[in-house]
């Protein structure tokens, strides 16, 4: 039994190491949401700052939808463990509004990268009395 102990330990470490590996999430690329909007992140620097474009599939205006620029930042902390939090701003080129998104990138059990986000949109209003209806 004493001789088997080192073998079992090596076997455990070999089999268990796969389960301990950190699943990494990479924001660079093209992302599509449930409504058909798509975001493309083209560049990211060593600090986690990134840029790209957003093409929304939905709008509250009657204006023609156009691709709009986005800028954001990925949290670069040792505690992220490969599934980072991030935020970005989209400056809509076809309306008087801007949207901020915040979220986290996950890797699911099948290895698929998934972004979970929340957003806040601010539209321009004529005066401070209408401030209540400017944010969605």
Considering the chains and any ligands shown, give keywords for the structure:
136 residues; mainly beta; biotin; elongated; Avidin/Streptavidin-rel; Avidin-like_sf
SSE order and pairing:
Elements: H1 4-20, E1 29-32, E2 38-44, E3 49-55, E4 68-74, E5 85-91, E6 97-107, E7 113-123
Antiparallel strand pairs: 1-2, 2-3, 3-4, 4-5, 5-6, 6-7
Quick take:
By secondary structure, this protein is mainly beta. It is 12% helix and 40% strand.
CATH homologous superfamily classification: Avidin-like
The level 1 CATH classification is: Mainly Beta
The averaged pLDDT comes out at 84
**Number of domain modules:** 1
Q: Tell me the fraction of residues in β-strands, as a range.
A: 35-45%
CATH topology call? Lipocalin
Shape estimate: elongated
> What is the structural class?
mainly beta
Fraction in helix: 10-25%
Main pleated sheet: 7 strands, antiparallel
Return Rg in Å. Answer: 22 Å
Low-pLDDT windows of residues: 4-20
Please tell me about this protein's structure.
With 136 residues, this protein is mainly beta. The protein has a single domain, classed as Beta Barrel (Lipocalin). The protein is built from one helix and seven strands. Strands 1-2-3-4-5-6-7 form a seven-stranded antiparallel beta sheet, with no helix packed on it. A hairpin with a 5-residue loop joins strand 6 (97-107) and strand 7 (113-123). The termini are far apart. Mean pLDDT is 84; it is low at 4-20. InterPro entries: Avidin, Avidin-like_sf, Avidin/str, Avidin/Streptavidin-rel. It is found in: Secreted. It comes from Edolisoma coerulescens. Residues 1-19 form the signal peptide.
